[in-house]
Amino acid sequence: MRALISIALFAVLYEAVARSGWFAPALVPTLPAIAARLYDMLADGSMANHAMNTLYRVFAGLALAAVFGLVLGFLMARYRAVERFFMPLVSAFMPIPSLAWAPIFILWFGLGNVATILIVFYAASFPMLLNTWTGARAVNPLWLRAAGSMGASGPALFWKVVVPGASPFIITGLRLAFQRAWIAVVGAEMLAASDFGLGWVIFDAKEFLNADIMLSSLVMIGAIGFIFERVVFGTLEKTTVLRWGMVRTAKA
Amino acid sequence: MNRGPSLILRGAVAALPFAVLAATWELVARTGAFPPRLFPTVEQVAATFARLAASGILLHHAGDTLLRLAAGFGMAAILGALLGIAMGRSRQVEDLALPLVSIGAPIPGIAYAPLFLLWFGLGNTGSIVLVAFVSLFPVVLNTWTGVKAVKEIWIRAAQTMGADERRLFRHVILPGALPYIVTGWRLGLAQAWRILVGVEMLAAVQWGLGWLIFGSREFLNTDVMLAGIAAIGAIGLALENLVFEPLERYTVVRWGMMSS
Predict the structure, then answer these.
(1) B145 vs B78, B89, B258, CA distance in Å?
(2) Could B233 and A92 be called an inter-chain contact, meaning their C-beta atoms sit closer than 8 Å?
(3) CA nearest neighbour of A213 among A22, A80, A46
(4) For residue B103, what are the domain limits?
(5) FRET pair for A248, CA 20 to 30 Å: which of A16, A56, A236, B183?
(6) Which of A4, A93, A104 sits opposite B233 (nearest CB)?
(7) Structure pTM?
(8) Same domain flag for B20 and B116
(9) What ipTM was estimated for this complex?
């Protein structure tokens, strides 16, 4: 209820500024104009098309990052040599923003999906990798010894003890990776996509001063991001981590 | 314990991955499978880096990027901390601001970039405002959480010992919330840094590392791009290691709010 008052107040303030005539209406469209544009874009299916393109790119990148992060993360946790070799590289590459690679990927692979997906992959890999690595190392050594003394060996130990033990961290890593990927995909689409995509449509609208299209797309980006981060991955985190009784380790 | 050789050995072990990476790159570059303009050798990149650094061009780009980062993040660090503290202390401010902050925070900052560039113009103003806006959210949310997390019992203890509002704030609430505020700054700076590089590409600024990389695309100067990325990575590492770790040591750990 209180939240509604604050949002309504903000809306009224915005509307007053938009109608005051201080700024060009093309730059600061009124709320009904934005709503009408959003409705048009939803009704004619163009918004769905943009959203599908963006989702395809983000999940392709995220899937690659998940596979890469899981494999390397477990290997780094298991083998000291792998950790020693890759850890310095990870620390060196992590502070480089994924968008910094955009120009190179564009040169190498051209504008379009490949460059965009690679940027998303780069952004999402680090949280996935670091959380898998931390999770696998945080598995209670008591469980490993208990399972070992009960005769579990190699593969069984890995699948029945290490993977479930690390899963809270991995699922949190997945959620963080989506967060990063979602930011990266919007930026990458502005720089590297050639057609369609929620980020691309914002950037394209700048040329024609269509602030209403920009704001409509911004609303969609916010809504989809919220749905996936909070609802999909948030629920996944809650159901699995809570159900498996891992809350205490997950909070660490 | 003989520490001398082990230090050298550790250095060698740390350098080995980079040597392997460089050697692999060099090998691929020399096979000629890719055009050398698109896949320069390591020496070429190093030579370009040295040339750009020696002529001061790289320094100029890096300096402008850092100035934008400092201006944008500086605003966010101060305003965000003030707003967060106000939200934590006053119910009305919290009711008013929290819904807006919660809605704004999850939207990727870069999505606002074209809008801000329309509103504030290409160049410095647009990019600095965007950087400030983006890094504001983690600072506000963390500061607010921190002020809320100050133990009620400390506040009551200080009050019974006769602390007035100002001393309560200075000696109880601020130190209590500080670990959260510093975390917020850290997250905010990391976000600002990631966004800034992208924004410089979009905003067509004249100087700046993001533009250095993006502008080289026109002339297929892959070596300049890689030199720019190396500079970006170095600055990112330096920000984390030289700015925040000391800050955390000097304030948070020293005041006993967090064990080191």
Answers:
(1) 16, 11, 16
(2) yes
(3) A46
(4) 38-253
(5) B183
(6) A93
(7) 0.85
(8) no
(9) 0.81
